[in-house]
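Q: Convert this sequence to structure tokens.
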Amino acid sequence: MRKLLQVDFTYQGPFGSEMASQLKELAESINHEPGMIWKIWTESAKDQLGGGIYLFESEETAQAYLKMHSERLQKMGITDIRGIVFDFNESLSLINKGPVNK
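A:
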């Protein structure tokens, strides 16, 4: 059963186009992670937060990615990492155009 993973953490930048430029290779590598279907990158310069919302094929692949990604972030000096794996209601999400049927 597919799962959503929400990750956020304290992040001091860069943001916007500078972030996109600096993290392009990382973004491309995420496409090759086992079970990853899609990711939406999240950022808030105002609140100094970074993160993402992911759709994974299963609980196991979401949890494995969360473990690996948390370790990678810690090596980058990022702390206060929060990751939550969610079930989601596909029927209601589709009414609101959520991309959960991809």
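The radius of gyration is 14 Å.
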